[in-house]
Amino acid sequence: MKRTNKKFAPVLLTAAFAIGLVACGGDDGDSSSSSEAAGTEAPATEAPSSEAPSEGPVVVDCAPEEGPLKAAWVYVGPTNDGGWTQAHDEGRQAVQEHFGDAVETTYKENVPEGPEVAQALEDLIADGNTVIFGTSFGFQDAFVEVAAKHPDVCFEFATGYLTSDNMAQFYGAAEDTDYLAGMAAGAASATGNLGYLASFPIPEVVRGANAWTMGARAMNPEATVKVVWLNTWFDPAKEKQAAEALIAEGVDVLGQKGVDSPATGDAALAATGVLWTGYNTDQSANYPSVWLTATTYHWDVYEIPRIQQVLDGTWTSGNYYGSLADGFVTLAPYGESVSAETRAAIDARLEELKATPGSQFTGPIKDNQGNEVLAEGVTHTFDELMSMAYLVEGINGEIPAS
Amino acid sequence: MNSNIFVIIISSAIFYGTPLFYAALGGILTERSGVLNLGVEGTMLIGGVSGAWACLHIGGSAWFTVTMSILVGALAGGLVSTLLAFLCITLKTNQTVAGLAITIFAGAVGLSSYFANIWKVAKTPVPRPIRTMDVFGLADTPVLGPILFRQTSLTYVSWLLAIVATVYLFRTRVGLQLRAVGESPQTADAMGISVIRYRYIHTILGGALAGIGGVFYSLAIVPTWVDGMTKGAGWIAIALVIFGFWRPSLTLLGAYLFGALQSLSSTLKARGVDISGDILDALPFIMTIVVLVLVSSRFAHRRLGAPAALGVPYEREER
After folding, report:
1. Which CATH number fits domain A61-173+299-322: 3.30.200.20, 3.40.50.620, 3.40.50.2020, 3.40.50.2300?
2. Is the ipTM reported for this complex over the cut 0.85?
3. What is the pTM of this model?
């Protein structure tokens, strides 16, 4: 009988492995995880103020003594994931193109959020890279650790909250473009019955769902939004199933945040009369008949000036939050279903949000339990935005306990 | 009537269970010959990316393009499994290690992503996706319409394959010999059956079916190639082989049960039913663990049909 057990060992091992693999799968597919988790632990703005030395920021000289500046990007996913990592890599390519021979860029993809990160960083530093960009929240601890060991290397971290003399943070106001996308969704809906696919119930995604809903209700005050929490950053089949389930419930416009595979668009395409606002990727050319618009990020807007500062010898740590004004976040091209009237309304609102980011979160705002969150004329502070934990009126559903 | 929650869940379960069944059916054939294929996940991804490439490049009528894409995906899956067969059967390496190596080598971080890069198939929706059909115009029949008559061509073919595979395994001479190879290769060899040939053929066939499962993801579910899009389906398929006791019919039901659990989660969430999403999402995996614990008992192992020589390389001299 021992034979039997022995033979089964690999099967069980496999199963255990398989389950483990699937269970951790949430992290490897998409890095947005990182990002969005940013706000959960500490509001982004607090970090620098609490740690900034009183004598002002320290200039870090991380330019090489001779030869081109070597800059590296560390990605959690593959460069053609069609979403988060791809957008980051397009930023890297833009940097390379902008600086030509003066800068030599490289990247490491599919770096798991674990002990491999510090090793990858040490390898990159040993190769002579003196500016390193991190693009996944789970990399943060390793970045902090390695940054402390290498004070002459500049570290740039997207979507985290910890800074030091040689480690800066950067991200941007997607809630503004999410709001504008929501306006397109609300205006396009014939029934006022909208659906939203959300990854995890953390502040950034909650903020996106709220902004999108408020945008939709700005165009159609009767609109309601059904939210499905997917509990994944990347799972195309699951995204499609959720989209189909929402369509079966009668929604005629779908939106999404955190998850960004084109499966949602295909669900809209396969149904009739369903429209879609995407996330992170411009799919206007691929899904013209169902496409409305989407939030897109332009990482190079931040990265090019920062590299220039390194070359100029003026780089200091900081905490950047981009906006519509500097083009860090933009609205993807409109689809054919967005009427001229709607475009005009969105464009007008876009100018306002450009001038005052986050101003859509101005009272009166009620949560979906009927409680007043913001009184007339009061606007959320940045810290409140970064730790948002309520759903606005108009959303059917609640934030699941985590 | 057809927006009834059960109709939605069952029809969706069949759709999303289809790729799981293809991969699991491949697993049955491979394991029945005594070879354990843990490379299913990677094989599916290679099939998926190859199928997407074919769909983007092969012209002709829609039916021709789709059929060719499926065949290309099957061929690619078969090629990957040929490598596994060579490692496991000819070189007699540890099958667990070889299978894991195949998944790592071919999977989300490996060859499938590399092909997607050089073939430039990522981000471009396939021009001829596999859509659900309206069979005999009955798709809108109450209850049965969406469940039986609004599925994809690959789903109908999979039903046919379930029958064919059952007959093949349990009613034909070749099937009997295959099972002999998996149960007792020494005996089979003594009877004049070529153990090596049977194992090679069924490992490759299994890989081809996993490749078709992958094509279902890139042509029917998304339908655009996205790196790592199977997201663990290959591992569920391996569990399904055990879940179905190495029998095609039970595995088909198992695949639909898994599909139903996933669909139940989405549907209940979309309806705003107040159930923890975490629990719903974990159900398929909890079920996998329960099943594996149950069938790994000695009793279950003997009674439920695990091939006795599963995972053991065949050495002619060994007794």
Report:
1. 3.40.50.2300
2. yes
3. 0.85
